[in-house]
Amino acid sequence: MIMKKFFLALAAALLTIGMTATALAAGTFSVKADELQYDLETGQGIAKGHVIVVQDGSRATADYAEFNSKSKTGLFTGNVLLEKDGGNVTCQKLQINGENNFSAHGDAVVKHGGRTLQADRIDYDKAEGYATTLGSWARLIDVDGSTMDAERIDYRLQENVARAYGGVKIASEARNLQASADQVIYETKAGGRLELIGNARAVQNGNSVEGDKLCLLNNTVAQIEGGVKIIYLPEKEQAKQTTAQVA
Fold first, then answer.
1. Which of 63, 153, 169, 224 is 20 to 30 A from 8 in CA distance terms?
2. Percentage of residues in the chain with pLDDT exceeding 90?
3. pLDDT in tens, 67-89
4. pLDDT confidence band for 18 (50 / 70 / 90)
5. Quick one: DSSP state of residue 151?
6. Phi then psi dihedrals of residue 170, to 5 deg
7. Which pLDDT value is given to residue 86?
């Protein structure tokens, strides 16, 4: 109790004179900020200005944070950056709910494995390896620069499978592919399947395919279902289009 009172008195002094305050707790937890209030007994803390919180291999920075080192929960606001499990998250507000869950709000960006997921809000469940977007828009950027835009994207990071819903559009310069559909199942691994469902359309090298459902494997149409429409350009015409695009 004496040590606790001494620590709190020291923290209060640091707050008063505006020095950088640092708190250390058992395990791998530490917090640093311009202003800091921290209770060693409960693990509850408030940090202001240049906040850095490190716990169990993850590192979060923000302008302001309210956290609990024992329950491993916290609310971080302002220029938030979370580095965790080989990836990182940027947003304006981050709610952490234990080791396995977080919710990123405001220009949320999650980067992992060379891929980027963007939305107004992204919720993540580490145990399931599952990220889902909330809001009116979402974008997934693949390692080759290909983009997929939709109203919502659910992405299983461990399985490298993304499901997109609502006005889905795909643009891939690397594959010379443009595609659209109501829903899309996108296997992001090399040679993965791309399934377009509902009002499906794909254009590649000047050739277009339309149908109720399209399945592409290794950039080749493997299956077409319902209301099929195909426009195929001979190789000479494809070459002319390619030359015109370059010019």
1. 63
2. 55
3. 999 999 999 999 999 998 889 99
4. very low
5. S
6. -120, 135
7. 86
Tell me the mean pLDDT in the region 34-45.
Answer: 93
Query: Which residues are CB-contacts of 66 (< 8 A; sequence separation ≥ 6)?
Result: 45, 46, 47, 74, 75
Task: Count CA atoms closer than 13 A to 47's CA, side-chain side.
Answer: 33
Q: Which one-letter amino acid corresponds to residue 181?
A: A
* Ramachandran angles phi, psi of 206, nearest 5°: 85, -10
The model's pTM is 0.81
Cα distance between residue 232 and residue 241, in whole Å: 13
Q: What is the mean pLDDT of the chain?
A: 82
> Tokens representing 27?
């395990």
b/e per residue 129-138 (b: at least 16 CB within 10 A): eebbbeeeeb
Quick: pLDDT tens for 107-160: 999 998 899 999 999 999 988 888 999 999 999 999 999 999 999 999 998 888
For residue 4, what is the DSSP state?
A: H
- Residue 155 neighbours by CB under 8 Å, 6+ apart: 117, 130, 131, 132, 140, 161, 162, 163
Q: In degrees rounded to 5, what are phi and psi of residue 53? A: -120, 125
